[in-house]
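A student in our group prepared the protein record below, which I am reviewing. Here is the record exactly as it was handed to me.
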Amino acid sequence: MKFDAFRLDKQIEANLAEMNFNRPTDIQYKAIPPIMNGDDVLAIAQTGTGKTAAFAIPAIDNLLIRSRRDDYTGVRCLIMEPTHELALQTGKVVEQIAKGTGLSVLAIHGGVDQQPQIDKLKKGVDILIATPGRLFDLVHQEVLTTYRAEILILDEADRMLDMGFIDDIRQIVKYLPKHRQTLFFSATIDQKIKSLAYSLVYKPVNIRISPKNMVAKNVTHSLIHVGMDDKRFFLERIFHENEASRFIVFVRTRIRAERVLAAMKRVGIEAVNMHGDKSQKERTEALETFRNGSVRMLIATDVSARGIDLPAVDYVVNYDVPDIAENYVHRVGRTGRGVNLGYAVTMCAPEENEYLKNVEEYLGEKINVIDMDKDDRQATIDFSADSSTNWKNLLAEEMMKADDIKPKAFAKNESSKKTPPKKNIKKSSPKKK
């Protein structure tokens, strides 16, 4: 089946062809017809399944059919996103699909000056993509009109609940008409999400895209058991062993993101990081630097990287085992996209074993372990460029000072005793179970 089977507006079809959208994905195939029909939809679909286009294509088509009322200058379609990055990313996709249709599109978020956003809203916007915080602020200031909005779309609804936006969502709904079309998209579903969904939708069409394998088949998964303080040495080694590859490194906290970035800089690896304490400008610049290939390593927390489309990522490194099992799926979904091959490497310290157990139970299978002998592990640490944190080198430096040994002679003597790591972590073929 092709997109022309949906009988979309011809300009939309032309835009999809320009975007190389040839055939609809499963979520698009199931969601587009009921949305075009005006039904409410409750859809559960993982990141990377094409859900943005699944709601954007039919929503834009519907707006073109129902022309704007002359006496209304407010927003006609409101799309809510949990993060700044997702709002901007979704905005770009919607703009591409709506190009040449005459519909105006605007993405807004907090962390930046609101006046330019207000100026654009005053001119009238058909489709508004917004984060809950900034959206609620502008509604309260009475510079955003939504009382005749025809379509409400909640994207990544589970993440919005995780981030504490449930009250903001309920407040925003009070400013929308009761008779509207509501589209509710979430990667996961539980009782809390169900309660919110059914308070917003009316007799929805339920869609659930549940692949047998929660992670892509073309991703190779590996597990390394390593001490927490030694993880940086193994990350350094994996990076250097795969010189043409691009890496996303996931950590659990903002502090960890800063520490890993500092550790990589100490060994001469250029990287950028992204987390909640960064300004919007810093986060945008970090993403752009990674996208354009200026740096090959992006260090990120789960919230900051959720749903972001980053093409051609070769490696996802779980520097910290996720404390929420389903985040493993969201993380590794950044690699192995489409027909591309990907690698997911998880580093597990002894104190993270419980997290690892939960992840494997969620996946329904064990992650393949890379076996490394004691000598190979020690060589990985010894050969790190981070000599300032290697206790053996620190001890050697103190010995040199005490004995007045020349550094060059010592270095030559020591180098003759070392042997390089025996295994290439990428080439280690995990045993299939």
User: Anything to note?
Assistant: Residues 71 and 167 are 31 Å apart (CA to CA). The chain has a mean pLDDT of 85.
